[in-house]
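Sat 14:20. Reprocessing the chain from the morning session after the first attempt stalled halfway. Input below, unchanged.
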Amino acid sequence: MENKLKEDEVILKGSSTFKNGKFVSDPIVKRIEYLVSNVLKKVATSPEWTTLYYDESDGRYWEKFYPEYNWRNVGPPSLKNISEEDAKRKYNLEEKKGVRPRYS
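Finished this time. Tokens:
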């Protein structure tokens, strides 16, 4: 499993299949969960089921989201790179003292 995000990666889209009566996550979902637990720094959450992360190794912001979210099912996560400006706007980073990561 790739333990860090590559420079040319901008989105990781997870998926799952229904097998033998249960959902089975693909390797991308497992990688996303590894990255958000071990590599990325959690910065903020939004009420829209999204979470903002920061990669201290390259200064990029990443948003974990659920593209298949509906009222019955969250679905598998995806992770996409977003600009610093979008991160500040969507997550009100300027107003949240102490949660902004250090800039390289």
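The radius of gyration is 14 Å.
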